[in-house]
Amino acid sequence: MTEGQRKLTGVLTLPPLAYLLLFLTTPLGDIFSYNLTAPETPGWVLIATAFHFFMFLYSAFVFAFCMLHLLGDGRAGKTVKLLWGLLLVVGNVFVFPLYWFFRVRPAKEG
Hints:
Elements: H1 3-12, H2 14-25, H3 43-71, H4 78-91, H5 96-104
Helix pairs in contact: 3-4, 3-5
Protein name: Cardiolipin synthase N-terminal domain-containing protein
Transmembrane segments: 12-32, 44-70, 82-102
Keywords: Membrane, Transmembrane, Transmembrane helix
């Protein structure tokens, strides 16, 4: 992985965390109090719901990238892989930037 690809990967790990923090600290959670099939539902609610679904898919792809990178990492021992795997499963979007910082960023071409 080139230096530019590593930096891009780091930037791409941030949106799920930013979205989760935004979702928890704003009234975006009220979206789910609307009846999405009612004709009087505002258009922004439908857009926000679609974006919410997209962020779940995006987070799943970032999670898959992190797990595949971890499993293919020849520098890490079994214990390190197990601990990072558990952290990624339990911490999920909070751990993505940390995983990038400690495992992906310092990677050197072999």
